[in-house]
Specification:
This protein has nine helices and five strands, in the order βαβαααβαβααβαα. The protein is about 55% helix and about 15% strand. Strands 2-3-1-4-5 form a five-stranded parallel beta sheet, with helices on both faces. By secondary structure, the protein is an alpha/beta fold. The protein is globular, with a radius of gyration of 16 Å.
Length: about 180
């Protein structure tokens, strides 16, 4: 199965996808690690210095070929996929979280010391990702939505139910609105 999980920074996408991958034998990728690999750069900083049009061209040509021979993958990102990339994934999952929880996580995380994060910037990021969620839903139909305001274990259980890893169709329908993904 190919799973794409997206949401605002700090919602726990990478933590969840790494935990899921380790426990279920999946390969885990972040959107930025894929882009660094296919663009031939070694850091996010190098990636950010690349011309946007060049990155988009490389992504359009190499994103799916990079992943297509890999089975059982989970990719976490920010929902910046084109139609072909969206269709490539079997399940698309939007992850949300309480804004105050996000702010606390980011402020306590040592890897994000390069910028100042405020509740206002968190709310703006959430709003942008909600728009992306709506755009993707308009393209493919209902997507699974999970919340990570509690423990990572609870969220992983929500993810397992949402992607059909448990034999509870009624529970899966709660995340998919009773609809299957339409491609």
């Amino acid at each position: 199965m190919r799973i794409y999980i997206f949401g605002a920074q700090g919602v726990g996408k990478t933590s969840l996808s790494k935990k899921f991958a380790k426990e279920h034998g999946y390969l885990q990728f972040s959107g930025s690690s894929i882009m660094m690999e296919i663009c031939g750069v070694n850091s996010r900083e190098e990636l950010s210095l690349m011309d946007k049009e060049t990155k988009l061209k490389i992504e359009a040509e190499k994103y799916i070929p990079f992943l297509e021979n890999k089975k059982n993958i989970i990719v976490d990102g920010h929902g910046t996929l084109n139609q072909e990339q969206i269709n490539f994934f079997d399940k698309i999952v939007y992850m949300s979280c309480d804004p105050e929880v996000i702010l606390s996580r980011i402020q306590n995380e040592e890897t994000r010391t390069d910028r100042t994060i405020t509740l206002g910037s968190v709310l703006m990021d959430i709003e942008e990702h909600e728009k992306k969620k709506n755009e993707i839903e308009n393209l493919i139909g209902k997507i699974a939505c999970i919340d990570n305001s509690g423990s990572i274990e609870t969220t992983e259980n929500e993810l397992l139910s949402a992607i059909g890893f448990v034999n509870n169709i009624e529970n899966e329908s709660q995340y998919w609105g009773g609809q299957e993904k339409v491609i």
